[in-house]
Amino acid sequence: MPAGTPAHPVGNVVVNARPIETQVLIVGGGPIGLMGSLLLSRLGVKSLVVDLRGRTSTHPRSRLLDAPSVELMREVGVEQQVIDTGLGPDWTEYNRWFDCLAGEEICRVPTPSFHSVRTDRSSSMPVMTAQDYVEAILFDKAASDPNVDLRFDTTASELAQDGAGVSCTIRDNRTGRGTLVSAGFAIGADGLRSSTRAAIGTTLEADFMDVFFQDVIFEADFSSHTSDRQGGLLFIAHPMGNAVFQPLDGVRRWRCQIGGFDRTQQMTAEFAENWIRSALGAEDPVPIEVRTMTEWQFQPGRAGRLGKGRIFLAGDAAHVFIPTGGLGNNTGFVGIRNLAWKIAFVLRSASPASLLETYDLEHQPVAEQRVAAGRRNAQLSGGIFRAFHEGGDTEAAARNCRQYGEYEGLIYGYELTSELCARDEEPAPEVENPVCDYVPVVRSGRRAPNLWLDESWTRSVLDWNGLGYTAVLGAHVDPGPWRAAAGAVAASGFPVRTEVLPEVDAASPYDNGEIVLVRPDGIVADHWEAGSERAGEETARLRRMLPMAE
C-alpha cells in the first residue's frame, strides 16, 4: 500500500481504501476462469482473476480436451503447447476392459471422440492430457497478457451487485491485507463448492449418488504390460471392486480410480500400492510410488440458474458431471465461450444488457443433455462389468457402450434456441443416435461446420471465430455490397466483417450462393441465399440478426 494511503477494517480484514477497478472480476483461476480471461482479452476487455489456491492444480483431474475445446486453445494461441502434453494417437484409439492389466482383455470400445488425429470435423483434434498441464499453460498465457490481472492465494468475499456494477473484497492470504474491487461484471468459476452461487440466489441441484471412488496418483513403469494394449481408459474387473487405470504421460505417471473399497477404513498408501499391484496382476515386482490419494463421490447436477444481473456462473460452479467421457471441463469451455463475447459486447456498448439473458437460455439445455450423457456412460460401462462377472455377452455390452468414446453428435450437433438464432424451416437432419452421430450442416443455432481452406489442413473457416460476427460469403456471392454493409455496421460500433469461402462441391455443408452469419462463438446466427434481398438492402438484412444496441 503506498505511503499515506488510509486503510479501514471490514470485519476482521484491513482493507486498503484505494479500490481496484476492472471490467470483469473472475472468481476462480482454474481452466475455465483462465480461459474466460483470455477470451475477454482478445475482445479488449480487462479482467481480474482471483483464486484461493496458492498455485495452479497439481492434480490431473480432468484429462480429455475434446476437439471444440482445443479449438479454443487454438484461438488463444496455445494449441500446440497443449498438444505437446498429450498422449497421442496410440493411447487414444480405444478404451479397454481387462480382468487385470497384465491379463486377459475382455473387450475394447473405439473412441473416435478421444482419438488424437486430425479430421474434417474440426480445425483441431482431441487431446488426452491432464488438467494440471493445461492449467499451467493457460496460467502462463494469462500472466503474460496485459489485460489480465492474476491474484492467486487470494480470497474473495462479500460479492454484491447493483445497477452500476459488482463489488467484493479480496484478501491476500499471505499478508492478510484486503482490497475492495469494483467491476462491471463478475464470473463465478469457483468450482463445485462455489461461493458465487449464493450471490445470485441459487444452489447446485445435484444428485449425490452412493458411488465413491478412491483416486490414486502414482508412478510406475507398466510399459512391458501395456505396450501392445494401450488405451485412454483401462478398466479392470477386479474381484475386490472395479477400477480404471489412466495413463497421464504415457510413460510413468498414472492415475488409478478404485471403486468398491470399504469406506469405514482409511485407505493408506500401503493399501493403495498393494491394491494396484493386485489389479496389475503381474508376477514381476514392479516398483509403485504412490504420490497422492483423494476420495470423491458421484454428484451430477446443475445450478438452478446460471446468472442474475451482472453475476454469472461457469464451469463446475454451473454444472457438475460424473467423470465418464470427459464431459465436465469441456462443457465448461462451451459455456465460457458462450458467455465471454456477450459480456464483452455489452461492456463495449455494442449490444444491450439483455443480450446476457441468453446465456442461461442457451447453455442450460446443453449442460442438461451432457449431464444426462455422463450418467448414461456410467451405466453403459457398468454393463460391461456386469456381463463379465455374470458370464454374459461382453461384446454386446461393448457395442452398447459406443457413446462412451463416440459422441460427435453431442459435441458438434447440439442446437441453441434463442432470439440470437433464426429459425430454420427445414427439419434438422435425422440421425440414428443423436449422441453419437453427427451430420455437418449449416443450420441456425448450430456450430458452423469446419471447412479446411488449404490442402495442408492448416487454415480453417473456424479460425475466423472469436473477434466478432462474420458474414461468410459463398464463392459465387458478389462480395462488394456485403463488405460495404459490414463496414457500415462496424463503423457504428458493432464488430462484424466478411470472409469469402473458396468454391465448394455439392458434398460440402456450405453453398456457393449462400451467406452464413456466424457469431463470435462459432454458432450460426442465420443463413440465406444471396439475391433474396433487393440491391441496397444488404445493410438492413445483415442487421436483422445482430444484437445491436439502440
Taking pLDDT < 50 over at least 5 consecutive residues as the criterion, the unreliable ranges are: 1-12
Roughly what percent helix? 25-40%
Number of helices: 14
Q: For the terminal residues, how far apart are their CA atoms?
A: 42 Å
Rg, Å, rounded = 25 Å
Secondary-structure content class: alpha+beta
Approximately how much beta-strand content do the residues carry?
15-25%
Q: Give the tally of β-strands.
A: 25
Q: In one word, what is the shape? A: globular
Task: Report the mean per-residue pLDDT as an integer.
Answer: 92
Could you describe the largest sheet, including whether it forms a barrel? 9 strands, mixed
In short:
The protein is an alpha+beta fold. The protein is built from 14 helices and 25 strands.
How does this model look, in words?
With 550 residues, this protein is of the alpha+beta class. The protein is 27% helix and 25% strand. The protein has helices at 31-42, 67-76, 79-84, 89-92, 131-143, 196-199, 223-226, 269-280, 327-347, 357-389, 394-400, 408-412, 479-491, 538-543, and strands at residues 7-10, 13-27, 47-50, 64-65, 94-98, 105-110, 127-128, 148-151, 154-162, 165-172, 177-188, 204-206, 212-219, 234-236, 243-247, 253-259, 289-297, 301-303, 307-308, 311-313, 319-320, 469-473, 496-500, 514-518, 524-529. Helix 1 packs across helix 2 and helix 10 runs antiparallel to helix 11. The two termini are 42 Å apart.
